[in-house]
Every structure is written in structure tokens, then in C-alpha cells.
Amino acid sequence: MSIDPKQPSLLNWRTLWGLLFVAAVIWSLHLAGLFERDQVNVGGWTLVVRFLLAAFSPELSSEFLHLTLEATLQTLTYAVCGTFFSVLLGLVGGVLSSEVWWLSKGFQAYWLAVRAFLAIPRAIHELIWGLFLINIFGLDPLVAVLAIAIPFGAITAKVFAEILDETPRTSLLALLNSGVSPLNAFAYSLIPQAFPNLLSYTFYRFECSIRSAAVLGIIGAGGLGYQILLSLQSLRYEQMWTFLIALVLLSGATDFWSAMLRRQLGATSRLDLNVLNLSQRQKPLDQDHRLVSLSLFGVIVLLIFSFWYVKADFTKLWTPRTAQLLAGLIQDSFPPDISQLSQVLTLAAQTLAMSLLAITIAGIGGILLSFPAANNFLLPGGILDPGRNSHLGTAVLVFTRFFLLFTRAVPEPIWALIFLFVFFPGILPGAIALGIHNLGILGRLMAEVTENLDQRAARSLKALGATGSQVFLYGVLPCTLPRFVAYILYRWEVCIRATLIVGFVGAGGLGRLLTEQLSSFDYRGVIATLICFICLTFLVDLISATVRRTLR
Amino acid sequence: MDSNLSSNIPVPIFELKNVNKQFGSFQSLININLQIQAGDRVALVGSSGAGKSTLINLLNGTLQPSEGEVWVLGRNLASLRPKSLRQVQQQIGTIYQQFHLVDNLRVIHNINAGHLGRWSFLKAAVSLIFPRDVETAARALKQVGMLEKLYQRTDRLSGGQQQRVAIARVLVQNPIAILADEPISSLDSERSREIIQLLRQLSQDSGKTLVTSLHAFEYAHTYYQRIIGLRQGRILFDAPAEAVSPAMVEALYRLKD
């Protein structure tokens, strides 16, 4: 056949990025020293065995359970207060950085300026904010609340702005044209229209706040993270497991509540929140207003309780001493000290390698575990329904989901400390810790992709006699893989920021340098390192966005 | 089946015996008895909700009847082990209203999916990177008149083009019988006529059995030998096309009893 269309070359963007990725992983493994040094500390295995055995006998004395409850409430209240302030900041910032607000005021491009300004607090991790704030407020719960509120407020502002800009504008314009002032017009049109989406996102942020509140424990802010760290360092694993279980329960309950509520509000799934695609938003099928109103009531009770329980000294916010300390800190920090630049650059390369290895582990593991965790896969009537022995499918589903929940509920630095039992300090244990934590998050996100998959194509393949594995290969993987890659790239952006917090517990990279500089009060060095780190995160964002665009 | 064999009557391709199908409390098909012989060209007509799609899905083994038996190629589908069921399904090609192609794959892979019943897993996997049996796929695509689209992504094609790809997939599958479930309901009238003509020609050329469910009666009358009228889950008539009178058609689409 001479007129056959020519087969397209295998050399396209997809294979190019694939090859670059493989090269980058090899480079990262090289930087991690995998090919030269011995990585495993053989003596650590006995500790690992002790640690794992302790899981079967968590400390359950009533006195200790009381302590656990206190720590859990502390973490919860940090998260609640932090979310409250971040939503306040987010609402103000969101309106101010939305295109539609400035259009309604008659100005043009101010929203871009506000957005650019908000990018800075967003780029700095909660933990760094926490360490800065400790220097101003001392060890006060205020530190934990603000350390969550500031960066999350900036993130929420960005997302709220995007939601407002994507909401249909006709009713807003109608009000504006009849002479209503922009603020009132917003309050009566755009905000109520966007309310379900805003609320969904708020709850998603609350899930994130719980995790952050736990992580902030490791800088001394108290709560579950702090207690886990203490019991881990003093080798009291039985106690540590009790705290871990409490954290998994808290985190799992929050996820469950939030997911249920979001389904009621119109099924904005976690995915769409992350890679905002609200146009696909489904109409809620049967709204159960009781759940929504009950939740709102619960939120109010939780807020009052939290502000009472957290005992943060909010007056410190406006005392002259705070202003003095802040001014002093800023004075000490400038100009940045660039004398260590070559060291900083080496560590930046290591940090990049750590994030690459972490996302490789998380991506591959997440893909593999996402399928058994999806509720339309192995179960009866699912895509790969094995036909017989449906109990096995259910057991696999429950086990995988629990595993994913556990891996994402344990904060990254705790994973890092556990892996530091058996690995010598370096970027490898950090990468594994980040990888395991993100595996739990990615696995759940990807399971949702499979659950939302249009199954008609897969069923038509089944109808023509394809085996289960072939249906998977032709009818499932081609549809899910592009979204998987998009979420992996998005998670990579999160990973590079989280390298800091595993660095804090000794896993190498810029985070470790930052810890040393902070503990020796070398603020000029801190600023130089931070600037380099922020540039690195912007670089990763840029690569991720470029890859996503060319793969679309 | 013994009686059939001894009296030398060929085994029907499809046979439904006292079939009922229920979805929850909804009776989709009621007491259906039906035989379709090799080489038959049958149109299933009736308004939406009459049970046409359910019937098609019973015939290709996607659904199981609530009561009664579905026999395909002389085998009772309910008694088959998964592997034998797949072997029977390999002989039945289905075309759908919404095409049911894998959007993200190139046309060639969607066509090659017709081989899946025969291919090993390894061959299927390799083919996604280095397409196998390109000539067979190209020949099938040429038959439906779209050779130039072989390496296009499927979701970039128009509805009519996607339906042609689905037909090319069935050609590659090379089944004994072709089922088409409302193949033209998503297409404009010009495209509809082309697709129906194409289906008839393919079945005539190769002697394949063709069962098509259609919403519109006109095409059934022009292009099919035998018409089965379904109304509210029951067979209202089953007759040669020329024997179907306007009164029968009117009864089929009448709103109330």
C-alpha cells in the first residue's frame, strides 16, 4: 500500500520528557551517592524491628491517653484557628487579586500586582514562617496559628481569586450597571454564586492545616507532632504509636468529613481543587441540607472551642515589642550574605535531586496502589471484577486505602526520622520519607481519577472478548495516565517545598543548611539561602508547567 | 440442541428463550423469544426505553438475563467459563451510539483493539508503542474511507469519523455477527445514511449477520430484511420488512395503549 499515512516518529515531546526524566533520576541517584557509598546502617535494623513490634503494643494507660487527647486537641485547635485566619486573609486577598474586582472598579492590571505580591508568602514553607515567628513571639501557640495562616492565606487567596474569576459574571454586571457599589455587588452576586466552591476549598484547606499543625510540632509548637518527635527521640516507641494512631484518626476523620461535605456541595473532588477545573463541576444530585447545616453548626462550635482552648496571646500582635523585634530581625537580615554561595548552589542541586527521587517513588508507588484503592476496580461490577471471590477484592481495597491513609497521615519529618534509623544522613532518607508521604496523597488522588473514569470504552473492549489485563492496558491506562502525570507534576511542586522540612531533621539539602544558619542566628545567611530556595521552587514550577502544557 | 443437529437445521447465531430482564423494579424486557440465523439483517425498532439497547447488551454478553437463556453460536452464555465466554464474544462485534472508543489513543490503537481477543498481553502491550498489524488496520480504515486518519488521536475526530473508526475496529475483529446499538443517533442525516449503507454493504459482502437497533423506522424499512418491533419491553411484531404495514408502525410508536 503506497498511500499509507506515514507512521509518526517516536521522537516527540512525550518521549523527550521521558528520556530527560530517566536521565534526571540517574543524576539524582548519583548525587545521592547510591553508586559510591554504603547507604545502609546495618546497626539500625534492630531499632526498626523494635519500632515495628511496638505497633502491636501501643501505650494505652489512662493517664497517657489523657496526654494524647490533649495533644490531639492542641493540633486540632491550631489547625482550626490557622484555617480561620487563612480564610479571612484569603477572602480579602482573593477579592483584591481577582481580575473581576479590578475590572468592576474600572482599573485594569492591579490584580496582577497583588497576585505577584502574594506569591512570596506562598513560596515560604509553614515551618520557616514558624521559625521566624518564634524569634518574635517566643514559644507561643500564636506561632503555630500564624505560621499556618500566613502561607495558607496566600494560597487560599490565589485559589479564591481563580474561583471568582471563573464564576459567571452576568449578574454582577447587571448590579454594577444599575449603580450598586462594587463591594455590595460582589456580596450580592459573585460571592453567593461561588460560595459552594469557596466552602469546598476551605474544607480542603482544613485537611491540609491538620497535617501542617502536626508538622509544626517539630519546631516546638506542641501538639501531636511535638509529642511524636519527643517519644521517637527518647526511643519510647509504644508511646509514639499511640500518638501516631491519634494522628491517623484525626486526619482520617477530617478527610472523611470534608469529602462527604464536598460531595454534598456539588462534588468538587480533591483533584479539581488542586488543578482547578471547575467547569466540570457536577450538579449535586440530592442535597442533604441537614449535613451542610449540621457541619456549619459544628464549625462554629469548633471555632469557639478552639479559640478558647488554644490560649494564644493575640495581643502580642500589636504590642510595640513585636514591632521592635520585627524591625531588629529585618535589620539583622540585610544585606543577604552571599559568601557561601558555592555551597548553597551545591546544596540546591542536592535538594532538586531529593525532590526528583521523592516524586519518582511517590509517582510509581501511587500509580500501582491507586488501582486496588479505587472502588470501581476489583469490586463486583468493577472494571476488573475477577468474578469470583469478591471478599478478596474488598479486603484488598480496605487494606490499600488504610495503607495510603497511614502513609499520608504521618508527617514527612517523622518518616524521615524513622528512615534515619537505617540510612546514613543524606538526601536518600529524605527522598524516601517525602516519597512515602506523597505516595499516600497521590495514591488517593489517582484512585479518584480511576473512580471518575468513563467506563464505556472499557466495557466495549470487554464485550469484544478482551481479557482483564488487556482492558486495563487499552481502556483504562490511556485515559488515566495523562491525569496521573499532571498530578505527579503538581505534587512535585509541593515536594520541592517540603524538602526543607525533612532537611530540618537531618536529611540534607538546603533545609539542613537553613537549620544550621537559624540556630547560629546567621540571618543574613538565612536570607541568601531562602532566596536561592525560592528561585529553585520557581524553577520547578516553571518546568512542571511547561511539561504539563506540552503533554496536553 | 440435539434436535437441531439431527434435523440438519443450522444452529441459529442468536437465540433468546423466555428472556426477562429487570433493572431494580423496572421491567426492561418481558418474555422475549427470538432466533436470528446466519446472514440475517435484522433491524430492532421502537421508541427509546423500549428495551433495544438491553437486548443488544444481552446478545453480546455484557448483561445477563434475569430469567431465561441467551444462546450465542449454539452456546448458553450463562454456563460458560470466563475464557469460553471471551471466545464467543470475540465472534460478536458491537458498535455503539456514543462510539465507546478510547479517546486518548490514536486511531490505529483503537482499531487494533479489535485484535485483543486473539492477541497475547505482551503483543497488545508492545503494539501500543510499536503498532503491530498496521496493514490490516490500514485496510480496514481504507474500507470505511478514512485511511489518512490512521495516526490521528481519536478525540480529534468528528462524530461520523469516530463511528467509522468503530466500524473499522469491528472489521479487524472480523466477527461472525455485528451488533449496532443506535449507531446513527448521534449523527446528522447525511452521516446517518452513509453509516447505515456502509454497515449493510459490509454485511452483504462478507455474509455477516447484522443486528441494528434504530430509533427511526425509515432506515429499517429501506436497508433491512427483517424488522423486530419492540414496545415497552415486549416484541410487538417480528416480520419481513415488506410485510410491515403503516398500521403496525403506528401501533409501535403510539403513546398510550
Explain what this protein looks like in three dimensions:
- The complex is a heterodimer of chains A (552) and B (257).
- Chain A folds into two domains: 69-332, MetI-like fold; 334-552, MetI-like (MetI-like fold), CATH 1.10.3720.10.
- The longest helix of chain A is centred in the C-terminal third of the chain and has 36 residues, at 468-503.
- In chain A, helix 5 packs antiparallel against helix 7 (141-166), helix 15 (341-373) packs antiparallel against helix 20 and helix 20 runs parallel beside helix 21.
- With 552 residues, chain A is mainly alpha-helical.
- Helix content of chain A is 75%, strand content 0%.
- Chain A contains 22 helices and no strands.
- Chain B is of the alpha/beta class.
- Chain B has helices at residues 2-6, 52-59, 82-90, 107-112, 121-129, 134-143, 159-173, 189-206, 217-223, 246-253, and strands spanning 14-23, 26-36, 41-45, 67-72, 75-76, 92-95, 177-181, 209-214, 226-231, 234-240.
- In chain B, helix 7 packs parallel to helix 8.
- Chain B is globular, with a radius of gyration of 19 Å.
- The model of chain B is unreliable at 1-6 (pLDDT under 50).
User: Which radius of gyration of chain B do the C-alpha atoms yield?
Assistant: 19 Å
**Tally of discrete structural domains of chain A:** 2
Per DSSP, the total helix count of chain A is 22
Largest sheet of chain A: none
CATH level 4 superfamily of the largest domain in chain A? MetI-like
CATH class of the largest domain in chain A: Mainly Alpha
H/E element order of chain A: HHHHHHHHHHHHHHHHHHHHHH
Shape of chain A: globular
What is the count of structural domains of chain B?
2
CATH topology of the largest domain in chain B: Rossmann fold
The main β sheet of chain B shows up as: 6 strands, mixed
Category by helix and strand content of chain A: mainly alpha
CATH superfamily membership of the largest domain in chain B: P-loop containing nucleotide triphosphate hydrolases
* Cα radius of gyration of chain A in angstroms: 25 Å
Q: CA-to-CA gap between the ends of chain B?
A: 38 Å
Poorly predicted runs of chain B are: 1-6
User: How much helicity do the residues of chain B have?
Assistant: 25-40%
What is the CATH architecture annotation of the largest domain in chain A? Orthogonal Bundle
In terms of DSSP E residues, the strand content of chain B is 15-25%
CATH topology of the largest domain in chain A, what is it called? Answer: MetI-like fold
Distance from first to last alpha carbon of chain A:
33 Å
